[in-house]
Amino acid sequence: MAKQVTQGTFDDVVKENIQEFEMTIGAAITDAVQQFESQGVNLAMIIRDPSLYSADGEKVVHPVIVALNSLSSDQPEDVDVSNLEVVKQECDVDLSRRCFAGKNDAYKVLLKSIQKYKNVNKDLFVKALQTMCSLCNGQPDLLDQQGAEEFMNIMKDENCDRLITELIVRLVRLNCTKHEMNRRIFVKLDLIKELVKVLKKNKSCITIVKEVAFGLRVLTQDDDVRVPFGSAHENAKQIVMEGDALRELIDICKEHTNDVSVQAELFNTVSKLVVRDEFCQEVKDLGGLDLILKSFHANITHKGIVKQALVVLKALAGNDDIKVAIVKAGGVPLVLAAMTQHQGNATVCASGCLAIATFVLRQPDHCTVVMDNDGHQMILQAMKVHPKDEIVQKQACMAVRNIVARNRELCDPFLEFGAEELINRARALPSCEDEAKAALRDLGCQVDLKERWTGERGSLQQEAY
């Protein structure tokens, strides 16, 4: 773990450089940065703004502190507007400014401003919500139970207009990102039910639809490294079973067939929710599979929707019946066409290879469909175009392995197009060795397998505890 210093320690070094070594402010800051970085100190959360230091090295009172002190006192509304704007602008600069504001009680001050102006002054209420969003971006640890309850009360208010609804959904989403405890707090406060309710009420508002979709996805993430186990799977089940979210998302997709940005956002969300076989089947029964394939075909030149269509098709193909339906509906040539169209894009190539690998898994007939559409050439082409991209190489090796594992007669076409050389190159990449070896083995190529342990007595070192 990298070393860290406080803002005060950094400021003292800058002051010393100015007073003792007669450096300019800019040179003093640069020297201080070099000193700390040479010692392995992480300065990501340190503000290095020359305007915050006087000519003699003394620290000028930060404008955020001035604004927060003013907001804490009883000031006229026009003064509060300007103070909120100061805090928001500073927080929008970078994470170090947001952390500085957070350490100076910005969260408590802004929460009081939100409570103060709710149902009193809409403009100031909106400004306070916007400022709180800026503050909480990237630092959800600031949230407390009081704030969570206040935010949910605002979301539940039937009188909220669309702007306030969008802001409060965004604020909750920011506080749930990479923070498992906050997610659990909000779920206990009926967040899932309220998000779906907001979605139903605002189907025609694109910005709210996107924000809610993003919020639902955040609840399905297991991205907090501080907890051993997350509730991502349980949340996804609850969103589908209690919120009936799949029906709502697919209905909205049908209403926005001409808006690729909305479709891409919703496809992404659906892919995170189909965590069980019956959920995949529900998407098909609701007409979601046909909708996805049609949208994919109609917008195959649009990189954004292609990426998300590949992801959601791969997720749905986790159900063997849906996998068969996708291939029967022409999913294989569609995926290969997308990989051809966007072969320079590593994400599309990786997602395409992973989709193919999923389609052919335990389905020998699907392997033949891939080969009949020259899928082997496209997979190997992706490996050639992105030789250093570990994800592309890994997924391509997996696709090759799954195609030939039960169809040994399909090995020759791969070998004729140089698969052995390409896969051996992929072995040199750290995360690709296992997949590359599996592909080489099933292609019938020479591969050296390491014997991890021979089972000989006394070969393991025993340590006393």
TrEMBL record:
Stored InterPro entries: ARM-like, ARM-type_fold, Armadillo
Protein name: Armadillo repeat-containing protein 6
Keyword Nucleotide-binding appears in the UniProt entry: no
Species per Swiss-Prot/TrEMBL record: Dreissena polymorpha
GO BP: hematopoietic progenitor cell differentiation
The entry's keywords: Repeat
Domain of life: Eukaryota
Record's signal peptide: none
Residues spanning the membrane: none
